[in-house]
Specification:
Length: about 240
């Protein structure tokens, strides 16, 4: 990178590669199946209304497995950076639903795909969420309308959360890092294009680079690259 960023705001978009070293399970076999079901069959609104018990079981297994995982050096590096500079200068957007950034101590995380650790009303996304751990039984109900509570996770066919906040953050960031995400799934795949068009310096951390609109690529795992990159960022601040 040979030109100065337009601002000192850093936006970090993270994906599954950030949590890989923590051992977060993928919950699909080599054929893309889970217990003989296509993963999309347990991750859509239609699947929920067709067979909520199956969907609950899928997310119960994910939630219980993730309870045993711990943040890795990549999560902790981002947490230390945000703690040092504040969440106005270090904006963390994640596609992950595992909560490991928060477990590492991050002050603020924009969870665009929701969270394993919350439930929401199946009838209205405007009704209050509840914090949740362990296994859903099906007895959980909305405090407003008494409808069933579903995992607060963005499913296939649903709009990711906080898109307006993410667009605003992209508009004012001077540097954009994409960490551990393929960059192939929209709308997240369009973030680097938007950031680059607005003058941000864009860096990808990925052992398998996506070939996107990046000024620089660090072809390493997140847990290896982030401690070094965040230290350099702090040294320059």
């Amino acid at each position: 990178m040979n030109e100065a960023p337009q601002s000192d705001v850093l936006l970090v978009l993270s994906g599954a590669g950030l949590s890989a070293a923590s051992g977060v399970p993928t919950f699909r076999d080599k054929d893309g199946l889970w217990e003989g079901h296509e993963v999309t069959d347990v991750a859509t609104p239609e699947a929920w209304f067709r067979d909520p018990e199956l969907v609950r079981r899928f997310y119960n297994e994910r939630r219980i497995a993730c309870q045993a995982t711990e943040p890795n050096t990549g999560h902790r590096a981002l947490a230390a950076l945000q703690a040092s500079l504040g969440n106005e200068r270090v904006i963390l957007v994640t596609q992950n639903i595992d909560g490991l950034l928060q477990k590492a101590g991050c002050l603020n995380v924009i969870e665009m795909h929701g969270s394993l650790w919350k439930l929401r009303c199946e009838a209205s996304s405007e009704h209050p969420r509840i914090q949740f751990s362990g296994a859903q039984t099906g007895a959980e109900s909305c405090t407003i309308c008494a409808a069933a509570m579903r995992p607060d996770v963005v499913w296939f066919g649903e709009q990711p959360y906080f898109m307006a906040s993410i667009a605003e953050a992209i508009s004012r960031c001077g540097t954009f890092w994409s960490v551990g995400t393929s960059g192939l799934v929209y709308p997240a795949a369009g973030f680097v294009r938007q950031a680059s068009a607005m003058g941000a310096l864009c860096l990808e951390v990925n052992p398998n680079p996506s070939g996107g609109f990046f000024h620089r690529v660090v072809a390493e795992n997140a847990e290896t690259a982030l401690p070094r990159l965040t230290k350099a960022w702090l040294d320059q601040s």
